[in-house]
Amino acid sequence: MAAKAARTFSIGLDYGTNSVRALIVDTGDGREVATHVFDYPSGEAGILLDPRDPHVARQNPADYIDGFIVSVREAVKKAKRKAGFRPDRVIGIGVDTTGSTPMPVDRRGEPLAFRKEFKRDLAAQAWLWKDHSSHAEAAEITRKAADYPVKYLAKCGGTYSSEWYWSKILHCRRTAPRVFKAAYSWVELADFVPAYITGRTDPDTMPRGICAAGHKAMYSEEWGGLPSKEFLASLDPDLAPLRDRYTDKAVPSDRQAGELIAPVAKKVGLPAGVPVAVGAFDAHHGGVGAGAREGTLVKIIGTSTCDIMVAPGDRALPDVPGLCGIVPGSVIPGMYGLEAGQSAVGDIFNWFVQHLVPARYGRGSAAHEKLSREAARIAPGASGLLALDWNNGNRTILVDPLLTGLVLGQTLHTTAAEIYRALVEATAFGALTIINRFEEYGVRVGEVVNCGGISEKNAFVMQIYADVCNRPMKISASGQTCALGAALFGAVVGGAYEDTAAAQRRMTGVKQKVFRPDPRHAAVYAELYALYKELHDAFGTPGHTGSLYHVMKDLIAIRDRARKA
Amino acid sequence: MAAKAARTFSIGLDYGTNSVRALIVDTGDGREVATHVFDYPSGEAGILLDPRDPHVARQNPADYIDGFIVSVREAVKKAKRKAGFRPDRVIGIGVDTTGSTPMPVDRRGEPLAFRKEFKRDLAAQAWLWKDHSSHAEAAEITRKAADYPVKYLAKCGGTYSSEWYWSKILHCRRTAPRVFKAAYSWVELADFVPAYITGRTDPDTMPRGICAAGHKAMYSEEWGGLPSKEFLASLDPDLAPLRDRYTDKAVPSDRQAGELIAPVAKKVGLPAGVPVAVGAFDAHHGGVGAGAREGTLVKIIGTSTCDIMVAPGDRALPDVPGLCGIVPGSVIPGMYGLEAGQSAVGDIFNWFVQHLVPARYGRGSAAHEKLSREAARIAPGASGLLALDWNNGNRTILVDPLLTGLVLGQTLHTTAAEIYRALVEATAFGALTIINRFEEYGVRVGEVVNCGGISEKNAFVMQIYADVCNRPMKISASGQTCALGAALFGAVVGGAYEDTAAAQRRMTGVKQKVFRPDPRHAAVYAELYALYKELHDAFGTPGHTGSLYHVMKDLIAIRDRARKA
């Protein structure tokens, strides 16, 4: 570990849905030295949309490169004003990103989007994680994989998602053949950034992270890496060659992807040669930055939620249906990484504020604050409302993008604050469904550590999560656990620690403030959750039948009781 | 009929939910001479609310009296500026009101609300039609009536409503015993106004209209008037005496309630002694004013909807389950009056505009216009949304106030205009469900004539009704069919016509503009209606089971098709 006499620093890059953050930390204690955020300039808050298809969500790869340069350069500038920091004491860089966010590249690894002919072609851009346009392809992959002798979906919950690598490539093959043909390979954003800044962009040999490969591309050492050419050809013959244009062995983030090349180093004000860790998804680095260990569920709550757990790597784990993935080394090298998630959380609240909130609430974060204040005064059950959190589909446990939102229980007096609260509660019910699924399959959830913007900023939301889940909700000490996790891996590849666990012990922690469940609220929420689960199963499960006649009546009874209390 | 040489006039009073309108017409052709609207000053837009119970909706009876005086006085003033009008040529007055809106009165027929001790007591006010606080009592009456040898509910759809007379009285008995004890009798607003202005307020002998009695108080000549004392006592022993404090024979609106008394006449600028017709509900007079005849469904579309048909009185009608009522003479004397309705229509749109519309749409009617314009550009099915129109419960065909709203199909891109359209469509689906119910029981719907504010003002809504119902939608020539119907009965009791039909032939008609269904839209709506009906039955029908798994998926498929078209 770093002795006080020789303070060293590492940099974590966290590529989010709308912006990228660079975080410079002290490797000795994980404390923030400086940070800078770069908002992606393209599209609508960084997202390229298609007005004819709400499933489409793409990004301009140039935003990623500009984002690296500007955010690191500005963070370094700020850090230089702090005592003890010097650019030559930066010992490593780590990178995490949203995902699965693959982009088509040419033989040299250059994004097709950079070519003039494809500049305006949505199919040639990066396909953002929340792009659901390939839902038909996802269903086809699920179907074909189920019939295939090798159980390629055993590690990702039994259902392939429209958010993932092969669905998107197959959809491009079918709907944008010109782009598909021009693409030599497809590179995840998490691999693209380390490759670009270390100059190792050749698609055949660039390091590919086990996190993206294992969770999204059906990569597993059990079957020798990516799915076989035969299987890929069964989806489309043109997919088979892609298998050869990929690394033989995907690796975790405690491995070095390469060293910062001089032209990039110069632009950001760092020396060339700084070690860069293999990239991974934001949630997985966030899990590490929040102190993920056996029995700890880390929830990264932002526009969507990722739920991360780890389990010992030395004994077999059951395959848990509906989980996004179970991948060795995807979170902490040497342990199984388990990923679940909700396709939209903050995005649902933002949608509501953007489209359905009257003038008196103001806009943006002011509206969120005012709604949260009003909604906090409403007792559990008193609105009579119940909602499903499926505005962007359901990732865990249904793994189904072809689901939509639902709000039920409106009267002629229902207010915006009541609906806002119902939407928050819906996401909490979704969170509880994930916790229950872990435990049903023997993965005990001993504590919950939350991180991400919402957990930091919104005590109202976190109290509802505690009440709905009937568990204490802890908050990560760092406000930037994803970037911190990335920086932690920068510290590891830079040699400050011998392994990830050692780095976690020094660099991570939780806040003193813990949100504890109110037993009376928890009792009401137990009733509401039973109704939520009925709607969840009725609309989300094939063949499920049962009477829903009582749902509105029960909600009215709960409401009347809550208002009289 | 009135000859040109001797033009005469009649006045119709239409007591709505938020205001009362006085309309002076020429009895020769029904044309408007003058009108004046008085907004009820009490409460929130005339409604007294209870923040603890969204079911409560009361009104201050003083507003009704002030409303008569001011609206008639001002209308007469305006009419006097028109050539040919003279107050002494007013030959009759008719009155219609919302209902069932009963109020407790003392031995002399004076509302208890006028006493100092009860001035602020919500239970002593008029219980507005849309007050649903007595839903438990309604369910109890339904249950007990079902077990009773006399089938008291056969004429009102088999289910007693929380909106109706006895439910409200029984709820008052149980929750406000002091008010109940002080009440000698309970008087419908439709009877109260004619009684008050003719001085015939003695509850025992004041004329009671067959419309309110038959539709809401289980009155039928088949069983000798109101339900027996034994039955009423089975609800509560204290209800039985009320049977004696009621007229023996309820009468239709072509009968005279009395003559305008001098003190009232003086205040409004009319001669004393003008004949006043027996009162009825707004929808029933509206049906008459819109030209209701066999095969014509009249829809009065306002905050709620009333659906009125008539059927020949000389042959037996089947009892139609879920209809609000089948009462001889309630619409046109000598014919069966059939009433159905939706508990909220305009109220749902108003609720949405008041609570869930962002600043850029403006407020009130400007917001309705802008939303309608935007929503009109959305193709049927293109929003992917489906809603239930139950924010105020369901009157026909489920007769269940314990139902609530539902909106389904939201994504992260769903707009306010899309939801507005979905809510309009939901009310159209509700309208179609009523048409289907009439026809399932052999009451043929040959044409639909719409009246009321929304049909007048909102072409967007009427086109959706035409497309959803796949029928032409006609619009009544008069913009004030309820008040016109009341004035028409004023003309009848004033002697201008020998019967209602003769008056209708001269005084009513439809506009040239007819909204005709677009076959392509109708085809999409047939698909959406099938899904609506599944939700309707799943949430609204006891014991109904079936899979709803396909609903969100079908909506997405319809949406994707509609957006590509």
Can you put this structure into words, describing what you see?
With 565 residues, the first copy, chain A, is α+β, with helices and mostly antiparallel strands. Chain A has 18 helices and 20 strands. In chain A, the strands form six sheets. In chain A, strands 15-16-14-13-19-20 form a six-stranded mixed β-sheet, sandwiched between helices. In chain A, helix 9 (282-289) crosses helix 15 (481-493), helix 11 (364-376) packs across helix 12 (416-440) and helix 17 (519-540) packs antiparallel against helix 18. In chain A, 61% of the residues are buried. The model of chain A has no long low-confidence stretch (mean pLDDT 95). Strand 18 (405-410) of chain A pairs antiparallel with strand 18 (405-410) of chain B.
Provide a short characterization of the protein structure.
The structure is a homodimer of 565-residue chains. Chain A has 565 residues and is an alpha+beta fold. Chain A is built from 18 helices and 20 strands.
